[in-house]
Each structure stands twice: as structure tokens, then as C-alpha cells.
Protein 1
Amino acid sequence: MTRKHTQHASRVLACAVAIIAAVLLASAAGAQAQSTMPSAAERAVSPGFRFAETSGEALYKNVCQACHMPDAKGATGAGTYPALARDQNLAAAGYPVTVVVNGLRGMPPVGYMMTDEQVAAVVNYVRTHFGNAYPDAVTAADVKTVRPASHSP
Amino acid sequence: MSSNGESKAPSRRDLLALIGTIAGSAAMYEAMTSLGLASDSAYNGPITLSGDVKGASVLVLGAGLAGMTAALELRKAGYKVKVLEYNRRAGGRNWTLRGGDTFTELGGFTQDCDFDTGLYFNPGPWRIPYHHRALLDYCKRLNVALEPFVELNHNALLHASGAFGGKPQRIRDIETDFRGHVSELLAKVATQGRLDEAVSAEDRDILLAALKSWGALDQNYAYKANLLTADFRGHAKGPGGGLSAAPVAGETIGLSEILKSRLWRYLQNFSAHLFQTTMFEPAGGMDMIGKAFARQLGNIIHYDAKVTRIAQDGSGVTVSYVDRKDPAAVQTAKADWCVCTIPLSILSQIPLSVGPRMKAAIDAVPYASAVKIGLQFKRRFWEEDDAIYGGISFTDLPIRQIAYPSSDLNRRGRGVLLGAYIFEGAGAYEFAAMPPADRVARAVEFGARVHPQYPAEFENGVAVAWHRVPFTLGCAGFWTDETRAKHYEDLCQIDGRIVLAGEHASYLPAWQEGAILSSLDAITRLHERVVKT
């Protein structure tokens, strides 16, 4: 785990209490014990807290489509999950990167469970599929710049 | 994180991060809900809204527990009350699925619940702590019959894929052996005089007696496999009658094995105040509560009403909505005041005339991911084969928990158990991304590693992924210390003629008690304003 992710996860989990954290600390090896990851874009269930998928396609199909749907057309009930298909909001690459990392309104900051490389991969996948064809790929370094600063312990 | 990272003192930041990254979603849930939830509910008994309401009217948005609490109490105080509800039923997340029910989630995936008559599954809240006094009081006042919810069953299982060859262990064995070994260690240190700086000689002797009693140690302060420890952990061969009836103690599990298995991490579930006995559930399904509220309110609830705009000016509140059966025709409802309980995941998308601070607060709260899966089996094999009557087994598999029904114990025939409860973490999103049938299939596949009877006994299942639920778009408001410090008070203010209520406006996120306490606080403040002006 990189320093960056440690810091970011702590922001999201900041309401935890240290006693419980200390108890859980020693469980490091246990959670790594098994893996249920199929290859590529198959339906995956990550063994730990973080997403184990690496490709943009696998990340989309196992994370994003929960809300944005398999066809990326979104869905509407009492509220709406916006479509990502043919989405002009994706034109500026920094926008989806920021949304994945920081969340937006009801959308959780799912990027806190991804590496910079994973965030870049899934953003690049969405920006080049579902009727989107934005050629400028984002990099892990681009993702790093939008990760929130850490908070003092 | 390198393996030697465990040996050096971690910073608080590292510890917090590790909860999520390593311990998994169940543990994270514990951690997240610990802050602010360790004390008893702030309920002070039924509220009295006295004074002249001057014929004022209130529009309540949402017929969940927060909205219906507000409607019930405000009507009683003399207000003209009307409730708009998106669903065709009352209750909101207070919800039960039974055989014959159909549920269509976002994306159009429809599930028909094929449970047997009388069997059910609560996709949302499923247990009530004894200290959630407001909810318990409303259950009493509304004649909702409660029964015990078994949270801790010593005979349920703890399972780690990489420990004990993947064989689940009984909670009583892990708990008793862990306590015994720790007691033995502490007793050893104490008898060696190495606690003398920390405890007086008198206290040391009492401590030794206590460790012997509490840890089931022998006269030499040793924890061993014998009939004494078997009185706590159970026997390999239980005491019988007649010939060959003498009990036989089983083997204990070594300290190192328990430590390395990490199974001890589940024991805290049974210590946390939120999950201490006695817990309750409504007999027949959690939605008995929502139905009881709705019976009281009768036809002041307008169902199938999707709110599209909330406007206010100096004279009142105007809410635009469409009937879901006729979405083209926009209707309006007007009132002097508005209690809005719409989840923030949805409210943040609705045009709403409130000030920038409340709007910023509404936009600041993401909604957590959670998945619950109900599975019906041909027989209650967990009781018949495994002597597990109610309670919860924990596993490091993505399903996290298997919870056994607390009702109809020791009966013949089919049963429905909770085959997965996944809160946050990667798995919650991944299960939500699957078609419902795949969620059920994966829950059966994983569950079979804990209960080998699964494949032969499984009949059907229902899977609710809360991010796919049309009336919430998520499980519950996901606050952090940071967002709470910045936005919580702004969220709870009365903005002109509008006040918000719901679990999201409480320090008990995702709990029904939070929804009710939030509502009582909101309407108390609203009422004060009405009678004073």
C-alpha cells in the first residue's frame, strides 16, 4: 500500500476509533489468505477491502455498472444515475478523475479503494467506450494530483 | 505494507486506514459506527408539542420512519399534515420481502420472491438494540409485537479461509480458548511478580483468582483440555445417561493457532454496545413497524408521488411532484412548512430553494454501498445438523456473515437465512454490479464453504443491492468526522420553512433510531418556531 492510499483511506475512515483499529491491525495476513479473482473482465469478487481488478473494463463491469448500468446509460428512480455513454462531461479528463477519487454528491469516492493506476484505467476505459472517443489518456500521475491532502493524525 | 510494519508502532492514521484495507467490510462497519454510537439513545420519552399551531399546515416528504414519525406527532399537535411518498407502500428502508413479492431494481432487473408462505427477509434494518428507546417506544405505542433477535449464538461459526484447513470453528471454542490462554499468560506474569508495579499484592491475589474463574484455569493457573474447560467450550462427547455416559473433554486450540487464524477479530462484534443482548426484531418482519405507522396515518399519505421540485418563499412551501402512474402531469402541493426526509442521494438532485450552506451539506454526503441476500433452503439444516438456533456466523469470504432466523426455531420444513451482509468495501460494489441471480448464485457458492449443505438444500433467493434501490440510491448517509464537522449542523438547521430529517440527519447513521430521533428533534424546533411567531 502506498503512503498516498494510506492517507486517503484514513480520510474516508476518519470516524473510526483507535481501539478497534489496534485490534484489527494484526489481521493483516488473514485477509490476504484467499483470492477469488477470475481473469480480466469476468465477474469478480475482490478478497479484501480494495478492488482487485486491474483493467479498465473489469473495473467498469464490477464497480461502475452497479449504478451507471452495463450499457452506461444510467438509470432513474426517485433520483437518477447519470449516463456515461456519449457523455460530454468526460471531454475534460480531469473531471471524471476527480469524481472517481472524491465522489460527487451521493456518489461515494470509490477511488479510495483503487490505486492511481486503477483510477486511470477505468477513466480511460469509459472515455473510449460507450460512444465516447476521447483520445487523451490519463495517467496514474494525473490521478495522484487530485488525491486529497492528508490530515494530521 | 511490509510484514514488519506490524511490529513498529503504527500512527493513528495507519491504523484507521488498515481497518478498511485489511479487516474487511464487517470490521469497517464496526469502526464507522463506533463513534457517537456508544452511548444510549438520546430519547426522553414521547414528545409533547403544546401550544396553538394557528391552523398551520405541514407537508412531509417521505413516508419512512422519519417522515411518519413527523406526520403522526404533528397531526396530533393540530397541524394539517400531508405526506408524499415515492413508493406504493409506506416504510422506506423499513422493508420486508415475502413470497409473492416482486422487486424491480434500477436498471430494470426484476426479482420474484419465491419464499414459502410465512418466510421472509429484511433487506434493510433487521435488528433493534435494547437501547434504541425511541423506536422501542413507538413499537409499544403502535402495538408492534417484538421478539428476541439472537445476535450472539455461541454455537454459530467463525470461518477464515486460510485457517484450520478452511474448517469453520465454533464461536464458543475460539472465545473460550482465547480467553483461557490470555488468562494463563496474564496469570503467569502475575505469579512471576512482573505486575507488581501495576497492581498491589492484594489486588494481584484477587486478579489471580479472577483469571482462574474467568479463564477456566486449573489450580496451577494453566489452561488445559479437561472437564473444567469443557464446561465452557463444550465436550467432545457430552454427558449422557446410563452406561457409557461419562463426558469426554475435547482438545483445546493453541494460542498461536487462534492468533494466526485472525478469528479473534470477530469476537468484538459481540462486545460492541450496539450488538449486546437483548436485541429485538418485530415478529413477522421489520415492515410491521412501517405498516403500523401507516395504519395510523391512513389516507394522509399520498403514494406513487415522485417529488421533482421544492420551492419556498416567505409565505409557504410549494412542492412539485408527479404521480408515477401519470408522470407527464406535474402536480403541486402547498403548505406553510415542510419536513423533508428524502435521502440526500436523491435530494441533492432535486431543485430546492434553500440557502448555500444547507445545499452544500446536502451535496456533501455520499451514500454507502450495502448488499443483503436472503436464501431459502429446503430444511433448517443449520438447526437440524449443526444445532445453530439463530445468531450469526462470520467469515472472511465476501459474504461476510450468515445470519440464521431467530423465529420459528426448532420447526420442521423450510427456512430463510441471511446469506450475505456486505457493507462497504470492494465486495459491496461488485455484488451490486452483478445481475441479481448472479448475486444469489455467488452467495450460495461462498456459503457452501461454511455450510457444505448449501448446494443440496438451496431452493431460491433474493438479493437487494442498496445502490440499485430506486427510492434511496444507496444504503445510508456515509459521514466522516470531517464532513460532519463541516456540514452536519447546516444540514439540521431550519432553512426558512424547510427542515430535513432522517438517519442522514443523525449521529446514528443507518439506524432506524437515528431516523426517529432526527425527526423528533426537527419537529420540536419547527413547532417552537410556529407557536412563537
Note: The longest strand of chain A covers residues 75-76.
Protein 2
Amino acid sequence: MAVASVETSIRTGSMTRVFLYLVLILFSLFYLLPFVVMVLNSLKPLSEITGGNMMALPEVWTVEPWISAWATAQIGIEPTGLSPYFWNSIKMVVPAVAISTMLGALNGYVLTKWRFRGDTIFFGLMLFACFIPFQIVLIPMARVLGLTGLAGSTPGLVLVHVVYGLGFTTLYFRNYYMAFPTELVRAAQIDGAGFFNIFWRILLPSSGPIIVVSVIWQFTNIWNDFLFGASFADLDSQPMTVALNNLVSSSTGVKEYNVHFAGAIIAALPTLVVYIVAGRYFVRGLMAGSVKG
Amino acid sequence: MSEITLRNVSKIYGSDDAAVNNINLDIKDGEFMVLLGPSGCGKSTTLRMIAGLESITAGDIFIDGKLINDIDPAERDLAIVFQNYALYPHMNVAANLAFGLKLRKVPKDQIESRILKTANTLGISELLTRRPRELSGGQQQRVALGRAMVREPVAFLFDEPLSNLDAKLRATMRTELVKLHNDLGTTIIHVTHDQVEAMTMGDRICIMRKGIIEQVGKPLEVYRNPANIFVAGFLASPPMNLIEGSFEQEGDSLKIEVSGITLTIPAHFANAYGNVHSRKDVILGIRPEDIYTDSNDGRYTCMETQVVAVEALGPETIMVVKLPGGKEISARLDRSFRAPIGSALKLYADIERMHLFDPETEKAIVAR
Amino acid sequence: MATTLARADYRTRLQTILPKLVLSPSLALILLFVYGFILFTIYLSFTDSRMLPSFGWVGFENYDKLFRLRHWSVAVSNLAIFSTLYISICIVIGLALAIFLDQKIRGEGVLRPIYLYPMALSFIVTGTAWKWLLDPGIGLENTMHLWGWDSFTFNWIKDRNNAIYTIVLAAVWQTSGFVMAMFLAGLRGIDNEMLKAAQIDGASNFQLYRRIIIPQLRPAFLSAFVILAHLSIKSYDLIIALTGGGPGRATEVPATFMYSYTFTRNQMGIGASSAVIMLMTIAAIMIPYLYAELREKD
């Protein structure tokens, strides 16, 4: 991790160290507790939850809630489980991540290696766009999607996510390419490489770390988005988060907590896996990218 | 055939002063031209304008008489070696060399033979499959050179390629580059701030300061006849001593009063500088190597000095001494010569080799 | 000769416009979908739009109404409570954990991902988990009762006066680990030689942090503040999932207010004006920050 390697030279006494470990472990329990409890209870029959202790291990282990959450649970009016919405999310996330990352990479390349008058203004406009409250664009967006026939469709959501992710991907790639030696670009120019050749053959092969960052960031943000999904999707394009919320907050019938938990974990799984597999690169890149600026 | 000609070339960034200010330079076919100057003098900017990496604010650049101002860098058929080598980190050495040839659609078998030939010349054949980060600084330097050579360009542009090497390797590479130039006969423009490189490598050197050219000429010519105070003070180490003084006319003989010493200027010498009689203030320049510990049978002028510092370098001793008027000058003396700090010391200047400068224009007062 | 020159010329010209050509789709998207939309929403906030946009100019009437609405003032004061607590608690916990973790802790590699993982979750998932943990009937309170601590009560989520703090709790749980990572990166970026120099000068650990290290984390503080402030003003999902704005209006914030006025109560004009107020709040924080960042770099 980014954060690793260099250790401080601060020395601490053994009493202090006991205290340190105690606090650190307590906090790790705080962070782990909700998720662990959720996992445990997703493996219990409903009766054990309503009648028992949430901290207890299941007496009867069952994957029934998981199957129900995935395939048969009532979402809105259809008993389809979360699976169709899972695929909706995939169909939305993959193109949106790919397009916004590609555009961000090209923007970052131009903004650092082909600088022109006004490029800082352009970048400032992109950067500010990262931070707008999305409420400010909801109304016109709904209208534009309606007018273009994209309302309620996956392509419409892809468009929305590309637009509002562009600022971040541009920021990441710009900051990364700032540190990329410009002389390599110059050398390639002299060697006869043109605009796209330099990008493809010189910059992109060295962009692994920042592509990882951009993809993870976009993937988690888009996968976890609720507002746009709730506002602009219809049944055929509703993403996972919206379906999960429908499942959890449906007011009819018995509250099947175990199914809710299984559903929540299913919804969280893709981003969790991404974090576990590539989290270290993400934090490293994020630090290099956004914090140091 | 590849002459490079700069006509009234300027480069201005934004609203700043000109980085390069209206320079004119003719680089002959096959010449090794060194652009020399302190950092910020515009030498690298000039090189980049020739390469096409910087736009030209005003003026024209010609290669072999063809105007290239608006021609893409790739089309100029020049090759650059950068200070940090700029090797493509994700390609091995062979791919680094091949990159430019592939883009130019050179046939495959030709690419291969040219790479092998270049690698042989530079002694990097066994490195061809390695990545740049696995190479030492000196090896990277050779690969960068190879990448330029393999293209067989009309001219090489060197942007301080030796300054990242350690002192020993730098000395070796100096001689190697000169040898390479002799073998290839290609025009080379070499940018450096190191005056030793300039003296030893260049057919001619072009000294720049603050965006203008101060002097162009063969190294020894420039050394012998610096055109102005800047060049006099920049070239050679330690540089020429520059002492402010004033003329005194005593009957027939002309004297200069500098820092408490009166130097009599030989009559034949004074006559050559006919125009100096009318002046009052002058700056006298004398190289440390023109100061001696003996009078050479009275031909040299005696100076009473006091020793300030002694730098015994081995091959020579550099002595910093104070003149009666307080001005400190350095003298390059025999390696065995020693004198205690603070002691009085008689030194002798070869006045015949002095230089005179106008303190207002800073230009050399040239003998007629 | 002439043809190569012409070709070179064409190529050169292409090379000079290509970069701008490549930027133009992004520029067009941003100009339309961000700045165009902002202008449109600002315009709507001055109209009598209700269920659909309409263009009858009403001046500041919507803003006037908005500021008279009890519902809005509740939302604003909730946001003020929420963001103050959320930002300060996250920074305190994040900084403390980062400093603790920076003491050559064995198992740092295990602890760090544990602190960080909630950041990967959707606020909807976080809301689902905490909604249930905080539910007095089956969650923490019930567990404590079952373990024999009968007097334990923790029913904030059902309590109008305290429900907003449950939002803070869940939000802190989700992002404080991320703030920790930001501070940790800042700490690891501090020059070790300088710390050694200060130690030789006789600084105690506490003094070292107070006088040397924490002052140098200024950029990390600033970034953390900006990111957290922006997250808190935008936060919508977590409230929907955790409390739905309730009980009553106890956890209503501007983001939920805007949504319900615009899309369920058909008061688009007022919804738009609330969105404009939100934007202006964020802009007041972000623009000076971005301006400073961009100036520094050029």
C-alpha cells in the first residue's frame, strides 16, 4: 500500500503499545461487526432472528435466504429475486466504466502533454463537475433522457454515469500523467510517433496503476449509485441498489431479515471483491491522485 | 548534406522576456557545434526549436536551405538524445531502437540489421533484450545514443546527454562521442553547461546568455579572444581574472592602475590599442595561467600579493591571492609550489597576454 | 519534394488540432450536462413549475416559499447537525487511527483493509445493516436484554430527537476508515530526517505530533474536510435506506427534501430552488479550494 514502506522513527513505551493495540482492535471490531452479524444472520432461518440473539451463531445453518434473495424474493411486484437486477447493474457498469476511463485517459493525456491556452480553465470546469450535488441536474436530466428516448434504459444510465464520472477519471489521469516524463513523449515525437501513437504505445503501457484506480473508483461509484438508478431507471434497467432498497423496505408481508441480509451481501459482493483484490493499488493511486492533487 | 541555419529566431513564453532573443547561427554540414551557457540561457530552448518540440515565436530555421518552421518534428529527420535519456520504460533495448524505424515503415530485415550494426558500434549488443531499468546510467546513455544513431538522421541533437553521468564516465563518453562524430560525419548540435565538454568536443562553440549569442567560434579562438566579459569569465576554470582599473598616461608610456598595482603597458602593445588613450576606466583581464612565480628575466610585471587560499589539485596548484587594493585573483602555478596562507608573495603577470574590456559595454577592446 | 512538404504540412496541422478534437466530446458533455443543466435548474427555480417544467416567471417566489417552509428549515438544521458531527468525528477517528497505525503496528496489513472496506459498500447496504442493528426489537438492544442487561436502551432510530445521530453513526462507520487512509498517507509522506532532528532537539512524542507532524498534515486535513463536506451535503442514499427521512421528518435533509418536493409532491419550482441552495453551499466550499489547488500547480 501507498501508505506502506516508510516507517516513522517514533518510539513508544510498552504500556502505550498495549493501549494502541487495544484501541486498534476495538475499532476493527466496530468496523467488522455490522457485516459479520449480517453474514451470520443471513445463514439463519427467520425464526432464529426474530426470536433469538443476533450475535448467536446459527443453530440451523441454511442457504435458503441466499437462494431466495437471488432468485425468488418479491421485488416490487415481481417475485424474481435480485438476479435480473444484478445483470442490469453489470450491463450498466461495464460500458460506463470503460467509456469514462477511456475518455478520462485521453483528457489527462491532452491536458498534460499537449497543453494549450485555457487548458487550466477546462480542467477547472471538469473538476468542479465532480463535486456538484446531483440534485441540481436531476430535473433537466430527466427531461433530456425523456426527449432522447433514453429514459428508463440502460444506455441512458450509462450516459449519466459517464458524464458525472468524467471529472474524476480526468483528474486521476491528469495527475498521473503530470508525473510521466514529458521527455518520453518528446522522444517519441522525434521518433516519428503521432498523437495517438504516443498515447497507445508510450503512455498507455505505463498506465496500469492509474487505470486500476480509475476502474475501481468508477466501478464502486456506479455500482453503488442509488440516486440516478432510482430517478432514471425503469423495471428493465433498475440496478441492484434500487432493487435491494425495494426488497428491504417493502412494507407488505413479513420482514424476512435473513433474505434482506443475503441480498445486501450479494449487492455488496462485487465491490468488496474488487476492494479485496485491488484495494492496495486503489489507495495508492488515490493518494497520488486526489489528495496530493 | 545538412546545414542548419537560424535566422532572427526568437522564443517568447507568455508575457515573459524572450527566452531566445533574435539569434542567428549557421551550423555547417558535418560540424560538431556546442551550445554553451549557464542554465536559463536559452540553449535548450534553441535546440528544441530546431527539433520542432517548441514552436518558433519569430524568425526562421532552415535545414539544408529548406524552411522547417512549421514542419512536424517527426518529418525533420533529426534525432535527439535527452539528458535523462527518455528510454521507453516498457520496451526492451531492441524495441527502443526499433521504435522510430517501425513508425517510419522501414522493412523488418533492415531494422534488424541496423539495430545490430548500431549495437555493435556502441558495444551494447548483449543488452538488447534488457529493459531500461535493468541498465546502469552509462548503459542507458549508450542506448539513448543508439536510438538516435539507428535512425541515421540528418543531424543529432544532444540535450546535455552527459550531465547525468559520473565524472569518470563523462570523460570517457566525451572522447567516444568525438570519435563517433569523426566516423559518422553527421552534423551534431550539443547543448551543455560544462565548458570542458565545450572545449574538448566542439568544432565550434556558441556561447549563450539570457537568450542571446555572446560569441561563436572555434574553442581555442574563443579562449584566446573572448569577445566580452561574460565569455571571459565563463570559459575555463578557474576563469580569467577580471580587475577594474583606470589608465594613467605618463609621458610616452601608458599605465594601468589596478587594485593598488600600477602596470606599465609595453609601448608596442599600447600602440596597438590606439583608441585606449582617450579612456579612463577599463577592466583588465588576465588568465590564471598567465601568472608566474618568476619574472622571466624581467619581461613579466611584478605584483605584490598576499596569499588567501591554496588549492593543491595535484597536477597544479591554484593560488588565490589578494592584491594591495584588496581585489582577489587566482593564479595557476606549478604543482610543487606552496606558500603559507597570509604570507606575502611576489607574482609576475605576463602583460602581453592581458585582455582589456570596456566596463560600460562589457565588450573586449580589440587591438587594431 | 513538394508533395512531402504538403503532406508534412497537413500532418502538422492535424497534430495541432487533434488534442482539442479529442477533448471536445468531454467538453461538450460537461458543458451541456453539468453547466447547461445547472443553468436550467436555476432558471426553473424562478418559474412556476410544478409537476413538469413550465416557464412562467415568478421571480424569487419559490425561494421565498422555501425559506418559510418548516420542512426546509428542519432539513437544513438536520444537515447542519449531521455534517458538523460527521465531519468532526470522522476527522478525529481517522487521524487517531492513522497515528496509532503509524507506530510500527504488527498486523497493520490486516487492520487497514478492515478499516477501509466499508468504503466499498453501497450506502444502501450500510443503511440496511445499521437499520437492523439499531432496531430496538431485534438489534443491539434486544441482544443486550438477552445477555441480561435489561435496563439497556438504545432506541434512537425510533426517537425523533435522536434519529439524526444514527445517521451520523452509520456514515462515520462507512467513511472514517477512508479518512484514516488519507491521514496515513500524509503521515508516511513526512520526512523522517526532520522527525529525527526534532527528537535530537529533545521533543517528546506528544510535542512531535502537536508541533511538527500535525501541522504538516494540513493538506490532508483540507482534503478530508472538502471530501467529507461534499459527501455530507450530497448524502441521500444512506438516509433513504436507514430512516427514509423519518421518524416524521426527524432525519429529513436537503437532498431528500429536494427529491420529494420535485418528484412526489410536484413542487418542481421549490425543488429546483432547494437544489440551487445546495449547489451554492457546495460551491462556497469547493471553489476556493479548487482555485487554490489549480493556482499552486501552474
Note: Confidence is low (pLDDT under 50) at residues 1-6 of chain C.
